[in-house]
TrEMBL record:
Pfam families: Aminotran_5. The lineage of its organism: Bacteria, Bacillati, Actinomycetota, Actinomycetes, Micrococcales. SUPFAM superfamilies: PLP-dependent transferases. This is cysteine desulfurase. Keywords: Pyridoxal phosphate, Transferase. Its EC number is 2.8.1.7. It comes from Microbacterium awajiense. Its cofactor is pyridoxal 5'-phosphate. CDD domains: SufS_like (cd06453).
Amino acid sequence: TPDLDLAAIRQDFPLLADRPDGTRAIYLDSAATSQRPRAVIDAEVDFLRTANAAVHRGAHTLAAEATEFFEDARATVAGFVGADPDQLVWTSGATAGLNLVAYAIGNATAGRGLPASARFALQPGDELVVTETEHHANLLPWQELAARTGAVLRHIAVHDDGTLDLESAASVIGPRTRVVAFPHVSNVLGIVNPVVALVEMARDAEALTVLDACQSAPHLPLDLPTLDVDLAVFSGHKMLGPYAIGGLYGRADVLADLPPFLVGGSMITRVGLGESEYLPPPQRFEAGTQPVSQAIGLAAAVRYLDGIGMGAVHAHEVRLERRMREGLRSLPGIRLLGDAEGADRVALCAFEVEGVHAHDAGQFLDARGISVRVGHHCAQPLHRRFGMTATVRASAAVYNTDDEIDELLNAVSGIRGFFGAGA
Ligand code: PMP
C-alpha cells in the first residue's frame, strides 16, 4: 500500500507483535474495540506519572498543569471532528453520550433546566425516529424517552441490500418528528449512510439530528459541522484510544439550550440549598470527576490517526474491505449481510455460514488465531430483519494487512467442510 507504511504502523501496536508463545493475533474485531498504539498507552501513563492532579479545581501548579493537558486534549479531539473545543463534551463512551442527550431532552420535557430548553420539550404524540439498523445504544435511550414522555418511537426501514430506505425515511419523518437519530455507519452492515439526505429531511421537519459516529470516526475523515448534524457521539476505545472515554459533539446553539443530565460538582456557577445555576457547555454536561487520563490518551489516539492521515487510513481500509468482501462473496455457503453493490463502506463484513452456528464458526476461527466477533452485535432488530439471530463479524482497522484478510478467507473456506455442512 503506497499511502501508508504498514510495517511501521504495526510496530506501534504492542499487541500485534509476536506473543511470547510464538503465536500472533490476527485481530479482526476492531469494530468491538480497537488495539492501542504505544503512543496512546504512553500518553496516559506519562500523564499519571508526571502531571496528575484534580482538573478545574486546584489553584496549585500541578492542578493548573493537569487542567492545561486536559483542555488541550479537548481541543485536539474537537479538532479531529472539525469542531471548536466548547462543542465537545467528554463522556464515558457513546452509550453515555446518547443517554445524556435522551435524558436531557426528558428533563426539558419535564420543564427542568433552562428556559431556553423548552425548545426540546416533547408533547405526547411527538415522534422520535431511529433506523432499523441501530446499535442498542442508539435505540434503548429513545425507547425509554418515549415511555417517559408519551412520544412515539418510529423507525426508518432498511433495504434487503443493507442500504437505508430513503422513501421510508421520507414517509416516517414528518411534522411531528422531533428527533432523528441514526448511525453514520452501522456496526453490522458497515455501509456509510447518506447523512446529508437524512439531515435535510430532519431539517425540513425542524427535528433535532443525532448521529452515532462510533463506526465512522476511526475509519474516515469526519467533519461534523459539514455534515450539519445537531449532535453526534463517538467512542474512544473504538478509535485507538482508551476505554471509558467518548465524545459528545453538539452545535453551539443546541448545547447552549440543552439542560443538563447528570448534576453535581464542577458544572455550576452558583449553588443554593434550594436551586442552582449551571455553567455553559461543555462543563454543564461534565458533572463530577472526569476521565482525565483517558481524555489525554484519546488526544494521543487522534494525533496518531492524523499523523497517518485519515484519507490514507480510509483508502487502506477500503482496499482491505474489497479484498474481504470479494473473497467472502466467492466462497460457497456464505451469506453476507447488507451486501449492496458499490456502497461506500468501512472494512467490516458480517456474514452467516450456511449450516454452521455463528458461535461454532467463531470458535473455529479462534482456534486458527483469528479474532472475530459472533452474535447479534447489539443489533437484535437488524438481525431479526434479516431473519437471523447471530452472525460472524470480521472488522479491520488501519493496522490490518492483506495477508491477514487472506488468512481469514482461507480459514472461512474450511468452516463448512469441518462441520460437515455442505461441500
Ligand atoms: N454505537 C455503535 C454503532 C457501536 O458500534 C457501539 C459499540 N459497539 C456503540 C454505539 C456503543 O459505544 P460505547 O462502547 O462507547 O458505549
